[in-house]
Amino acid sequence: MLSIGVAPAATFTAQRSILLAVIGCFGGPGHDGEGLESICGVGYSPDTPTPGVVIAPMSRLISVGAVGLQVVNALGNGALADVYVRPSFDGVLETLVATAVVPGAAAPFPPNGVFAAAELGSPAAGGVRASVVPGPMTQEIVLGDAMDNGGVRGTDFANGRNVALVLTGPAPGSASGWWNDFSVVALDTDPELSD
């Protein structure tokens, strides 16, 4: 059994959305191999599972002239992460959205308003790159895949709206072939505003 402890009532009544994400590995027969700490977390073995829960507040504080971007670190390995977003326009470089996001955190607060909606172009054709800190492990995915994972539409990337980019699975750049590979889930932080 896993206990998440006692949370004050204000945790659930403040102007924010709460994200619950299961992390780590449950272990058991057949769930072993090399390099599993980068996937399941420090100390993992089939006999010492590492399941946990991330409870992260997604901000509803908005910037009227920008799309607010926030990153939630729900990686199973407990690594810090840097996250970059690349607009869909040819030749436009990626921009750092959040740096050294600790496991279980939602950062930055308030959300990063570095992009106006028009500067992102077509969000589905953009990119998200996550890097483990410190270390060379990095991986980029198409922002459209993250949108599909979370049911977010291009119209959700609007000025005065926030989108959370949730990092899930093993560390970015980990060997594939595990149950769930590294992924990003884009979520609307205030679904009441959606059509």
Written account of the structure:
By secondary structure, this protein is mainly beta. The chain has one domain (10-193). The chain has helices at residues 10-13, 37-40, 117-120, 143-150, and strands at 16-23, 52-59, 67-75, 80-86, 95-101, 106-115, 127-133, 138-142, 162-169, 183-188. It has a 4-stranded mixed beta sheet. The chain has a 4-stranded antiparallel beta sheet with strand order 5-4-7-8. A hairpin with an 8-residue loop joins strand 4 (80-86) and strand 5 (95-101). The protein is globular, with a radius of gyration of 17 Å. The mean pLDDT is 87.
Question: Which descriptors would you attach to this protein?
Answer:
4-stranded mixed sheet; mainly beta; 38% strand; single chain; 195 residues
